[in-house]
Design goal:
alpha+beta; Arc Repressor Mutant, subunit A; Nucleotidyltransferase, domain 5; 5 domains; 5-stranded mixed sheet; 45% helix; elongated
Length: 648
């Protein structure tokens, strides 16, 4: 305001007097003389007039500017391009320099010509010339009239159209045809959309539009309407993932173990199928603690199903040593199965698994990858673990290694794996990688690593047997004479002896040394252990371990036979039982007499009665020696290497 001058008329309006009165009282104010058409005049310094008149002038100016802004919304500086403001300021500077040059010259016309000739060379005011270019005297006069007695550079803004629409020569009809093709869900390329548009327009009008005109409009539309572009070409999921703003969560408000995030991941490498022995891609089901990013537990199965999810949750609860409050999981079919989400199981006798454990289930929305934080874990798992394995086969066709493709003889010769790891071997490798992973800095707390954050969890006592009952994979099997056949081997327990029926087994591929056996009505029967094969010539070619194993199995067979003989007594009359006992005694007596009538066997060779020296030794130790030959044979047998290897 210190350098602000107002005209005589403006001061007269403020005071409510005539301009003549102002001219007569000019000595009261500080003035500056100006040249006007027909003579001289003066302007009054605003700061030299009465304070109340200054305030009145400023208030009036503010109201006027507000009104102009409402009526003409194109001129506020914040809504204009920077280039327009630069041009307006350059015009104002040029007018000031022109007026200053004029006051120093005697003849105005000659001064104007001299000023413009010098300016238009581009040497006098180079910065202004770079923005405005050459100027005529008529243009300067027009700008001066627009500016009037003010210094508001907005009055000198270029008369451009400042709307947000792209300036193009395309008509509305041409834009409509072009966008209809460009925004098609088949996602035509810009070049193909241009050629199709020109072909359509050629049938209705003469087309003289260059390809660059269409391409510029397409680029502008994509950059300024990216939401419409994405939704039309890629769909709602891409719009949600790439355009819509996301919600930032404060993970620090969670405690370790409060929320486990579950999801399945198709392994990108081959493992041995435990049922067929052939290579296959299994699935890893994992439960990740949201607060610490610690993988609490996982399970490897051939497909994502309720059993594998249950087994993974079982492992997670055991490692967590607590029951999570919430399980946040995928919306896949296996996760939403009846076995997990419903609590009314009157038909099958079960309760919902999560409800029985006091866990609340929360399902992610369909196609909402942002909500599944475990996806980041699986991405790092693929990059830093799966790609290091020799059986890595890629997660899809695009990233499949060359040696798994057709006609790649070189890669097949040098890189194709010749060994497929088992699930047990893969589990050991994953556990080693998890040791490395959990030693990294926690993404939710940069002050500690993942393992340290996980160690702060609250622990309770977990009944593992209860988890075994609820969460191990189950199948229906038949009991045979050697037990239950599963994974090309037998599982046996003495409690299965005498059963010839259907049973339900529960197992985990992480521990195949034993299985748990239940009746069809879910009554626990026993834990059956895997049956190991016996050396075919244990006493002659086997080691001490083989001989002892064979001995134990022989004793078990005798024990089970005696159990059957005792059990049958309650099903027969007393006379029949006495008859059976007499028959057994007669058979044993006849065997002893037959043995005594034969010549004594060689000390270390099988006899005609007993298949092995071990059997005769067991018989003599049970019945006792009845003659000198047996005593002599027994003494020599105790001095033999066979006796020492078995009994000593």
């Amino acid at each position: 305001m210190d350098d602000k001058y107002i005209t005589i008329k403006e001061l007269a309006d403020l005071k409510g007097v005539s301009t003549r009165a102002i001219r007569l009282a000019k000595s009261k104010y500080q003035i500056q003389e100006i040249k006007v058409k027909g003579g001289k005049s003066f302007d009054i310094l605003l700061s030299s007039i009465e304070p109340e008149l200054q305030e009145k002038y400023l208030n009036k100016t503010t109201e006027l500017n507000s009104t102009c802004t409402a009526l003409i919304p194109l001129h506020p500086a914040q809504n204009l391009p920077n280039k327009a403001n630069e041009i307006a300021l350059a015009r104002l500077d040029l007018i000031r320099e022109w007026q200053k040059f004029r006051t120093e010259q005697r003849f105005r016309t000659k001064a104007d010509k001299e000023f413009l000739d010098t300016y238009n060379t581009g040497l006098l005011y180079q910065n202004i010339f770079s923005k405005l270019g050459t100027i005529s005297i008529g243009t300067l006069e027009r700008w001066k009239r627009k500016l009037g007695n003010t210094t508001d550079y907005h009055l000198l803004l270029p008369n451009y159209n400042y709307s947000t629409e792209f300036r193009t020569t395309l008509t509305d009809f041409e834009k409509q045809v072009f966008l209809k093709i460009l925004l098609h869900p088949n996602k035509f390329s810009v070049g193909k959309a241009i050629s199709i548009t020109k072909h359509i327009l050629a049938k209705t009008e003469q087309v003289n539009i260059s390809d660059i005109t269409f391409r510029r409009y397409a680029n502008w539309f994509r950059d300024n309407h990216f939401d419409i572009w994405t939704l039309a070409r890629d769909g709602e999921k891409t719009l949600k993932d790439n355009v819509e703003p996301f919600i930032k969560r404060d993970i620090s408000k969670l405690n370790v173990g409060d929320v486990l995030v579950a999801d399945g991941h198709k392994l990108a490498f081959l493992v041995q199928n435990p049922f067929t022995g052939k290579p296959c891609r299994a699935s890893l089901i994992g439960f990740l603690d949201w607060r610490s990013s610690y993988l609490c537990g996982y399970e490897i199965m051939l497909e994502e199903n309720t059993q594998s999810i249950a087994s993974a949750l079982r492992n997670s609860i055991i490692n967590l040593q607590n029951i999570p409050k919430i399980v946040y999981q995928d919306n896949g079919r296996a996760f939403k199965a009846k076995y997990f989400t419903q609590t009314d199981f009157q038909e099958s006798g079960f309760e919902g698994l999560y409800a029985k454990l006091g866990i609340k289930t929360v399902f992610a929305k369909p196609y909402n990858a942002r909500a599944k934080v475990i996806e980041r874990f699986f991405l790092e798992f693929q990059e830093s673990f799966e790609k290091l394995l020799p059986t890595y086969s890629g997660s899809n066709i695009e990233n499949k290694p060359a040696h798994f493709k057709r006609n790649e003889k070189f890669h097949s010769q040098y890189f194709k794996p010749n060994y497929i790891p088992t699930i047990d071997e893969v589990k050991k490798l994953i556990d080693n990688w998890l040791e490395f992973k959990h030693s990294q800095i926690c993404p939710n707390d940069n002050s500690k690593n993942i393992k340290e954050i996980f160690a702060t969890r609250e622990k309770i006592k977990i009944d593992i047997s209860k988890l075994d009952y609820l969460m191990m994979s189950q199948e229906i099997k038949t009991v045979y004479r050697n037990g239950i056949r599963f994974l090309n081997t037998f599982y046996w327990s003495e409690k299965l002896y005498g059963l010839k029926t259907k049973v339900m087994i529960k197992h985990s591929l992480f521990d195949l040394a034993s299985i748990r056996v239940y009746s069809i009505k879910n009554q626990f029967i026993c834990t059956a252990k895997r049956v190991e094969s016996t050396h075919p010539m244990a006493y002659h070619l086997g080691e001490a371990k083989d001989i002892e194993e064979f001995k134990q199995k022989i004793q078990k067979q005798k024990k089970l036979k005696n159990k059957t003989l005792k059990a049958i007594k309650k099903f027969l009359p007393t006379e029949d039982i006495r008859f059976i006992e007499e028959q057994i005694n007669i058979e044993l007596t006849a065997s002893e007499e037959a043995e005594c009538s034969l010549p004594p066997p060689l000390p270390l060779n099988p006899t005609s009665i007993f298949k092995t020296n071990f059997e005769k030794y067991e018989y003599l130790m049970q019945k006792g020696c009845t003659n000198q030959n047996d005593r002599t044979w027994l003494k020599k047998y105790k001095e033999s290497e066979e006796y020492k290897s078995i009994y000593e």
